[in-house]
Every structure is written in C-alpha cells, then in structure tokens.
Amino acid sequence: MQLHQLQSKTPRKSQKRVGRGGKRGTFSGHGTKGQKSRAGSSVRPGFRGGDNRIWQMFPKLRGASKKPGNSSPHPKHRFYQLKHDKPAVINLGFLNGLDDGQAVTPELLLEKGLIQSVKVGVKILGDGELKKKLSFRGVKISASAKEKIIKAGGAIE
C-alpha cells in the first residue's frame, strides 16, 4: 500500500482548505491605511466628511452657511422658522407716575424712558394697580389691563 492510496472510512463534510489566503486576505476588507482601517477604530456619526453626512440631511436656518447666496433658507424646509420681533411691554403699575388724564402713546412712553424702542409696537400688561385716569392710544392692551383701565376710569381709543 502506498501513501496516495490511503482513504478515510467517513466522507469529508466540507471541501479541503489550503492556507493560501481566503475571502478577506491582507487588509481584511478595511482598505489600506487611514483611520477606518485601524483596529478598534470608530468614527463618530454626525460629523461632515466621509460616509457620515447626517448633518447635511437637515435643513439649516439662516446663517448656517457662509457661502454667498445662503443668506435665507428655502421656504419649503420643514424646520424653517422666522425670527419674530416682539413688542415692547410695560406693566400698568409703572404708569402711575404720569399725570392724571394724560394720553398714553408709544412716543410718550419712549420720551419718559419707560420703554427702549417702538419699532414693533407697545403692549400694556395688567400687572400692578392703576391709580390714575389715563387714555390709551396706539398701543396693544391685554385683557386684564383693559379691565383695570376701565375700572380706574380711563379710556381706550
């Protein structure tokens, strides 16, 4: 009997493998060099560049990019929000320093230094007690302030 005539009594379950490399030789599917080819590497998602473009999927608000032409976002963006300026607010309690029967206008409040600006308008809120008869013109008034003004004998035009 010769060596090449030897046979096993049970058939082989899988094909014989030889050590000449397999399906994932040399770089094991990680390519050559670079951060992602290293052992134990992980690139945090959410940063620009490479395969992690998650922030490029979201619409940006105004000023998100410094490129020319990107000063305002596209109006179809779901997360688009306009910056709304709010009116200057003042409480009723601060108006007791005015003269009795005086007409309260945005210009008067600005002149007395009770508000900073009248660019968007003025709103009177109902915090505090009103002890003077005042007439209000050209200002927005909250429901509680309206009640207190009428109770004090004032007028709203």
TrEMBL record:
The Large ribosomal subunit protein uL15/eL18 domain, residue ranges: 90-157
Region (Disordered): 1-78
Key words of the record: Ribonucleoprotein, Ribosomal protein, RNA-binding, rRNA-binding
Stored InterPro entries: Ribosomal_uL15, Ribosomal_uL15/eL18, Ribosomal_uL15/eL18_sf, Ribosomal_uL15_bac-type, Ribosomal_uL15_CS
Gene Ontology biological process terms from the UniProt entry: translation
A Gene Ontology term for the protein's cellular component: cytosolic large ribosomal subunit
GO molecular function, one term: structural constituent of ribosome
Residues in coiled coil: none
Iron-sulfur as UniProt keyword: no
NCBIfam families: rplO_bact
Function of the protein: Binds to the 23S rRNA.
Family: Belongs to the universal ribosomal protein uL15 family.
Subunit note: Part of the 50S ribosomal subunit.
Protein name as annotated: Large ribosomal subunit protein uL15
Organism lineage string: Bacteria, Candidatus Yanofskyibacteriota
Gene coding for it: rplO
